[in-house]
Amino acid sequence: MGVATMVTNNMQSCIDACNKCAQACYECFEACLNEPDLTARNHCVKMLIECAKMCEMSAGLMSMNSHFAKQHCKMCADICDACAKDCSMFKDEHCQKCADICRMCADECRKMANM
């Protein structure tokens, strides 16, 4: 259920998924900065921030019932898929968990985009 209104009820699971994904990406980013192979993770670390920002924006647009929320969620799904792919290349637990959450968010965003 929406926090302040009923307007976002049909979008709430996607809003929640986007917020969770942004948090996971930021946490993974922080953990990756402390990994000994940071140079090898350069592209992945950049993707984590891009994904987190996209998820935050998608959650905001859905929360305000934006006319462009569906289109934005489609792009968010694509970025979440790319982030999951990058994270899954690294075998540490934080990257694997982040990849799983990114895939889950991508699925929710695709559902939202197709509503």
TrEMBL record:
Gene3D superfamilies: 1.20.1270.360. Signal peptide: none annotated. Pfam families: Csp. PANTHER family: CYTOPLASMIC PROTEIN (PTHR37310:SF1), CYTOPLASMIC PROTEIN-RELATED (PTHR37310). This is Four-helix bundle copper-binding protein.
